[in-house]
Amino acid sequence: MRVLVTGAAGRVGTNMVKRLVDEGATVRAMVLPGDAQRSKLDVFPDVEVVEADLGDQAAIDVACRGVTHVVHLAAQLVRGDTPVDRLYDVNALGTLRLLEGVVHGGAEVERFVLASSDGTYRPGRPPARPLREDSWQEPADYYGTSKLLGEVILRNHSAQFALPYSIVRFATVISPEEAGTLFRLRFWRALLGWQALGKNSHLWPLFDGQPDLLALLNEQAGEADDDIAVGLRDQDLRPWTLSLLDVRDAVEGVYRALTEPGAVGQAFNLAAREPTSHDDGAATIADLYDVPKLMITMPTSHRLELSIDSAIERVGFWPRHDFRSTVQDGLRGTRDFIEAHSSSGIASTW
């Protein structure tokens, strides 16, 4: 295989490069021009690193020359100050440009894998529990819509040019060294603070019509330390839930989407085998870090749960990690993965 990996300096990207190198593939790693995380790829002397912005068709064409497989991980997750049209250009038209580069790249492409997201299901107010691949997709936010457009563009290009493809929709991807920051008071203060963004957040439906959830959190937390373990629950004391995905399992799922015959023409949710309840997540942090645990009651429920039955049945994907084992590996210093961030800055998307 001659594989192009976009977003190769990111959380999943660098680990995907590692997996492909270990499997004996020839890898070309595409990164943003001037990406501060490019140095993460220095441990792979035989990997060709190319710089290309997803808005630059000429540079993308060069990156696509001669490849037989593509893993498209590059995307922009957080809008921030980026103009909306630029976000759509990166995530939707960037996918189109990459497909055009592949079509005219001089080699027969055997598989194109697009990394999509649970954000396409409107995660702030999930339409089903669990979410399956045929669940309603109308995200109603900038990021989710841009990723869904990328999926549509890929399906149509596949029909137009007989391009074998697969789509993977990631749950929230975590790396072991950072997993211990989840389910803490500080974490939920930051996330519930997104309510101030209004409709400029993929979670806006969670906050829509609700009181100030951050104020409710702070009221119940009182003077508690930011590092205590915290989970959220609804007024019936049912814990919220969240589907997570260890970066190592993300790589396994993408590799199977790239290589298994049963993946062609399919979309797959990738997540841990079971969602993490906030009660269990907070209990894990409390136990492994020896900190107090607090469950905080919210006026609404939020249960974001992905089914991975299709990935199990069609391509044999079976995740090895749950939240507790991921946190434990971070504490142990397990090094069967490449950390999300290098010392020089913030990692690229994915």
Automatic annotation (TrEMBL):
Q: Which residues form the NAD-dependent epimerase/dehydratase domain?
A: 3-271
Tell me the Gene3D superfamilies matching this sequence.
NAD(P)-binding Rossmann-like Domain
Matches recorded under InterPro entries = Epimerase_deHydtase, NAD(P)-bd_dom_sf
**What residue stretch is flagged as signal peptide?**
none
Q: Which Pfam families match?
A: Epimerase
Q: Which family does it belong to?
A: Belongs to the NAD(P)-dependent epimerase/dehydratase family.
Q: What is this protein called?
A: UDP-glucose 4-epimerase
Instruction: Say which species the protein is native to.
Output: Jiangella alkaliphila
